[in-house]
Amino acid sequence: MLLNAVAGHRVLFVGGKGGVGKTSVSSALGHALMRRGRRVLLVSTDPAHNLGHLWERKVGDDPTRLASSPDGGLIDGVEIDPKTVVERHFDAVLLQMERMLPERLHGPAKRHLEGARHAPGSHESAMLERIAEATELGLRDYDVVIFDTAPSGHTLRLLMLPEQLTDWAETLLRSRARSEQFSAVLESIVPHKEQPPTDRDAALRRTLIRRRERFARLRDVLHDDAAFVLVTLAEPMPMAESLELALHLDEIGVTLAAVVINRRSPGDAGEVLAERRRLEDVQVERLRAVLASVPTVELPLLRGHPSGEAGVDALAQQLD
């Protein structure tokens, strides 16, 4: 059922409250698609770095082959390290500022950036740019991109950013255009020695245009090609957070393709688990009453945690 629910979407975000099994579900989903001949890029944005642990492979910032199938299907993994991404982002910004600014301003610019590293939104902006890069890579070289996301609140903020940062870049470009027009008018009134546009001006405009286009592409992907798979447990707290997340996804225009209810207790394995199952049923009915039109998939409680490709494959078979 889950594979049918996500069919037609090339970018999938698997998310939910921390500890509900997002990495296991996103890996199982990727493996199930791989077995159907799809080329899958699985990207983890969770600082916990569970992807490599689950697959028992060393996974880093570059795609690592996790598995392949005889019919050409494959799954590659990437773990995005937020700390590394932020460091690279600000190093690149500093290098660009030093190219654009006079040497006397390099010191103040560096001090400003050191403060900006800890400013609200700076880390999210850097992570969003890396996610946009991964999305572009996935859409170019793969059939499907699956993001194994950080816990709900952080993911929701990231999904809202493309729209906001596209508008921000548009505003900066408009301000830059007005400044250039004003300079041209002033030059016509009070002529100075001819000063053609500098390389710094052109570089700044190129940077703003590039960022605007990247964020706009990601915004369009979120609205047109992406879907969200919500992972939860049949317990009061995860269910409440899941329903709230579903509401916010609808508000920002991201399609909720399916809900995976993970670790469902068996009803025929003793009175304790049977009672737990009855309590879980109440939560499942609560979910279905609110999200009646969204497909739900239930995964059973396993004896242990899945590990390695064999463990992921066993879970993937539950999704067919």
UniProtKB/TrEMBL annotation:
Pfam entry (one): ArsA_ATPase
UniProt-recorded Gene Ontology molecular function terms: ATP binding; ATP hydrolysis activity
Gene3D superfamilies for the chain: P-loop containing nucleotide triphosphate hydrolases (3.40.50.300)
Signal peptide: none
Family: Belongs to the arsA ATPase family.
Domain of life: Bacteria
NCBIfam families membership: GET3_arsA_TRC40
Every AAA+ ATPase domain range: 7-288
SUPFAM superfamilies reported for this sequence: P-loop containing nucleoside triphosphate hydrolases
Protein's name according to its UniProt entry: Arsenite-transporting ATPase
